[in-house]
Amino acid sequence: MPVLHPSGDQRRRPPLAVPLVSLAGALFLLAGATGLVPARAAVALAVAAGCALACVRLAWLAGTPAPDGRRARRAVLSRRVAAILDAAVLAAGLTVAVLPLLPAAQRLPVALAGLLLSTALYALALLRLPGRSRLSGAARLRRTVDALGLGVSLLFAGAVLLPPGPVPPAARLATVGGAVGLALLLVGALADRRRRPGAARCLAGAAATLVGLVLLVVLLAYPAPDRATLAVAPPLLLGALLTAAGARRAAGGERPGPGPSASTGAAWPGLTAPAGIAACAAGLHLWTVGEFTAPAMALGLAVIPPMVLREVLAAADQRRRAARLAAHEARLRALTRAAAPPGSAASPPPADASAGLADRPELLRRLVGRAGGALLVIDLLGLDDGTGVAERVLVEAARRLRAGHGPDDLVVRLTGTEFAVLTGVGPVLAYALGTRLLAALAEPYPGPDGAARLRVAIGLAETVGGDPEDVLRQAELARRRAVQLGGDRVEWYDAYLEEQLVRRLDLERELPGAVARGELDLVYQPVLALADRLPVGTEALLRWRSPVLGTVLPKELLPVAADLDLLGEVGRWVLDRACRQLAAWSEGGRELWMAVNVTPRELAAPDFVARTATALTAYEVPPERLVVEVSEPVVAADLPTVVARFAGLRSLGVRTALDDFRAEQASLAQLRRLPIDLLKVGPHLVDPAPDGQRPLIDVVANLGDRLGLEVVVEGLESAAQVAGARRAGCRYGQGFALARPATAERVEAWFEEFPSTPR
């Protein structure tokens, strides 16, 4: 399980390398065309120049060291794939370079062998390019139909453009195989040009190389005049340079996005390209030959069925997309209704607070046909609507809104604690207006029992002439986002925000019952002793393997669990599963510790210490083998409770750890109060300070030594960081540079490589 990754960092190459090589190739071809240099020699020199540059770049990528942490989390081109691409380009270049040195009888077999070898190497590499996503059934069928239509049109073009008479077997093989391969490569390149630009360039480079080698085989099979081989050089030169450029882009890290959309593709090139290729080939054949053979006519007509099938699939996709959009709209409307304050749909707004303000129907009327301006939806949080105190606050809030809006703005009372302002100014000024209203509404509200303070959430949406309900829904969604982020902020609607809110709705719908359905899982990241690289423990990391949403990480899962009051259920499952796994490893003679992450809210549960003791007893786990971690940035919110719970855990013999230690003034101040055994810090402390001072890890390691704490450096993603942590005196480390998180079975198999040494 040691990790070696290709680097995403690229050395800067001379910016003129590609233009100079291209210019040199053009000069060689010009010399061959004018007879200054033999044509085959000119082709060999031009192709060799481009392939040499591409091979050097690909060879450098194949030997690149591990990437930095940011790019290690992205799908990057592996060194093995870079080496295979290098071999493919080299095979294509050598095929052309050696031809002038061979007897005439050996040129065709060598060209055919080079075509087959280069094609095989390209296929092996392209199937392993980073960032691939699983295609849905509809997307796979649509891509197959596109490739079929393009392939048949290329076959037809090859059949009618070859010279009349018997076709040599080598030319037939190259034409048929080239048409099929070229169709697959071009369809793949077009599909990935935005989501995986590096992979798309590699596919395009393979397609250009295939064109050049197929053309070379055909020219040698007939045979053609020497000067005709000059046409081979441009696609081969382009293919080599595109392959190197694509590999370099992919080595920087492709970001695998969602799979291909189910929406219909554009008519170009899926429909237009096959028709255009077939029509041009047929016209040229009629001009030069004058008639079609029966097989050629049948092949030409075979282009039509894939085109018709593609249109049928496009229509079906359009219907499915319309249905999904309708369902999506319904869910968003439900989301908006669910976001309204409880009871708001049933208690009309009180008359006093609504005096002089427009209502919802008036707002919708004013939004019809409005193509400029913005709508702000304002929610007063923490106000119990329906009481006398609430009514006085709402009246004062309405007064502040009237005083703060512009002369041409419309102020609306939507629900109990929700207002809206429709303004004609642009989005930037509307945001400034929202900020002013936020400040005004957040001021204390005087009352008989003292001043009351409220949090305010404001959502902003532009009015662009769409459906009035849509504009209001967008502003409501932005307001909901402001509420989720704690209020006292203005949030601007955009499409990403809507996606996030829909994702949140999906999470809230699917998470209840996930424990009972067996969808939660743990992976384990080993912790190693930096001195001898032997494993001393593991950290249990939660994963939710949702059949609907895919794998969900704790960063996304835990806030939803907290809002749904499911943290206790999830935390109990994690503790039980971790103790059970620790017991299984202990039976095998492995004296390892198991670290479990908990939130302050979980720690605050009155039965947390007792529950931990029960789990340890149930699985007969020695208490010192369990480590309970809590993140330092959230400790300050309830420091006394954390101190009390940690003290209770230590009385059981359980070890405690402070995770994400920041080494700031406040962190150092509260460190002495916490009864902890382990201090976990991030890799940023290992890096040298910008002012030339020694790294902060030296200070933290000395502090840990004085306080009797073991320091664990986590997130180590390079050999330099590992060396820096060890040099500072830190005893333990974890991260991708040492071992990746993996399932229990894989970690256990990895343990077998090490002696069982108690720690």
Structural notes for this entry:
This protein has 759 residues and is α/β, with parallel strands linked by helices. Helix content is 55%, strand content 11%. The strands form two sheets. An eight-stranded mixed barrel has the order 6-7-9-10-11-12-13-14, surrounded by five helices. A five-stranded mixed sheet has the order 2-3-1-4-5, with helices on both faces. Strand 7 (535-546) and strand 8 form a beta hairpin. Helix 4 (79-97) packs antiparallel against helix 5 (104-126) and helix 16 (388-404) packs antiparallel against helix 17 (427-441). It starts with 16 loop residues before the first helix and ends in an 8-residue tail after the last helix. Mean pLDDT is 82; it is low at 1-14, 66-74, 255-267 and 338-346.
Write the layout of secondary structure elements.
Elements: H1 17-33, H2 39-62, H3 69-72, H4 79-97, H5 104-126, H6 137-161, H7 169-191, H8 197-221, H9 233-251, H10 267-270, H11 272-288, H12 294-301, H13 304-339, H14 351-354, H15 360-367, E1 374-381, H16 388-404, E2 410-413, E3 418-423, H17 427-441, E4 455-462, H18 468-484, E5 489-492, H19 495-510, E6 520-529, E7 535-546, E8 550-552, H20 554-563, H21 567-587, E9 593-597, H22 600-603, H23 608-619, E10 626-631, H24 639-652, E11 655-661, H25 665-671, E12 678-681, H26 696-707, E13 710-713, H27 719-727, E14 732-733, H28 744-751
Parallel strand pairs: 4-5, 7-9, 9-10, 10-11, 11-12, 12-13, 13-14
Antiparallel strand pairs: 1-3, 1-4, 2-3, 6-7, 6-14, 7-8
Helix pairs in contact: 1-2, 1-9, 2-4, 2-9, 4-5, 4-9, 5-8, 6-7, 6-11, 6-13, 7-8, 8-9, 13-18, 16-17, 21-23, 23-24
